[in-house]
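sorry for the late reply, my laptop died twice this morning and i had to redo everyting from scratch. anyway the thing you sent over, i finally got around to it. pasting the sequence first so we're on the same page, its 159 residues, then the predicted structure underneath. double check i copied it right bc i was rushing
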Amino acid sequence: MNNTAYLEFENQTSKVIIEEIFHPIHQMVHVIFEDGYENIFFTDIETGEWIEQDLGITSLAKAIGILMESKEKEPFHSMVQLKWYHENSGYKPIHFGYIKYKSAGNIFYAIFAANKRYMFTLFRKNQLWKAMSHINLHSWNFDPDYFQEVPFILDTFQL
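ok and here's the structure:
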């Protein structure tokens, strides 16, 4: 659903179109500005702060967060501390955060990119790793090698 709103940013008021994006982990919106700029903004699962995708915690993300919070009746989610893994060996660095949890007798790993956006969830079934991902119109093209690399790291380092 698209909503038109007025954003106060840098002493100016701008008309924006906000499309809420259903996401099970983050509160997430796609915002289109009057000047044609657009980006996805989402909440940081660790702090609740708003992040501008691929740019981080910016003043614009903070302004979007204030606008979104003024529309919300109650907080979207509780905050969770991620555990981080970083490796510089090999041909490219590997950096991800994860949450390990148990459900229905299985151990799950929710995997987050370095920019703190959720990528996918892994679990082991019959000695094979299975991946679950959230897909919507605003899918994010993270490095697909993580589907192969992260299970290997989980097995090797018993994270």
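Residues 59-71 form the longest helix (13 residues).
thats about all i looked at so far, will dig more tmrw
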